[in-house]
Amino acid sequence: AKHGGRNRLAEFVPAMTAATQRRVALERELRQAIAEQQLALHYQPQFDCASGALVGVEALLRWRHPEHGLISPAEFIPIAEDSGLIVQLGGWVLHRACQDVMAWDRAGAPALTVAVNMSARQLREPGFIDDVMRALALSGLAPERLELELTESVLMEDVAGAVAFMQAARALGVRLSIDDFGTGYSSLAYLQNFPINQLKVDRSFVQLLPQRGETVIHAILALAHGFGLSVVAEGVEDQRQLDWLRAAGCEMVQGFLLGKPMPPQDFAARYLSPVG
Ligand code: C2E
Ligand code: CA
Ligand code: CA
Ligand code: CA
């Protein structure tokens, strides 16, 4: 450990600087990305477990960077959150998602729900609930077809503020889900205080099926159903996982087995074009 230590430090420092530089550059470029139409939403289908019917989509943000290509939201969402840009970005996502689903309606699609991911910073933004109202009014989407996904960490950051936001959203008729359920803290203690409609079982549990993970998912299903909530399992990648979830009474499924996130025009072509 003694020899080479200095060399390792020398390698580490420039690497850190490069990562920081990329971050600073991305933050600057993110400001222009909306105006320059580098951002896009991809949609992943959600299916009713029992009937197999397509029931909704989740909107997932994509950044087509002119030099770096496709950048994962896992990288740029945290940058947008730290810089406050997430408020503008999240507003764009909300409006775009409502409009895309209504365009499918006009093309004769069934009345799908659309799930939109939320950051903590958006919940704290005083005008955000008005923006939700505006997105619904401008698109004509029925409020009960919009689902806002909140992670446990988003909820725990400011419980009182989150509850106030959730009550305002529910008063509009909008639906609320807890995303990545089972990976956070305090979820059980707070479940009864949160006016939510649905839990999304995190992919990390689903991927253990069918050999492992059953105990946790059975417990989540019992808990959710006890509170009158429905359950979506995310990250379903193989048939045995799907079979297990159907038998266990999970309401909805989402995952690469059934459909990957895709651009709206691909989604329409694959799922909404008249068959036969
Ligand atoms: P998430 O909300 O948990 O979204 C699910 C992620 O799992 C997506 O990654 C999706 O592509 C991926 N996924 C879906 N099915 C499968 C599967 O069967 N197997 C595997 N391995 N992965 C699957 P993605 O699109 O890269 O998004 C990552 C995260 O970025 C999201 O996790 C969400 O936390 C965040 N995010 C994406 N779009 C937005 C947005 O508009 N606003 C906010 N605040 N966050 C967003
Ligand atoms: Ca989500
Ligand atoms: Ca999730
Ligand atoms: Ca996640």
From TrEMBL:
<feature type="domain" description="EAL">
    <location>
        <begin position="23"/>
        <end position="275"/>
    </location>
</feature>
<protein>
    <submittedName>
        <fullName>EAL domain-containing protein</fullName>
    </submittedName>
</protein>
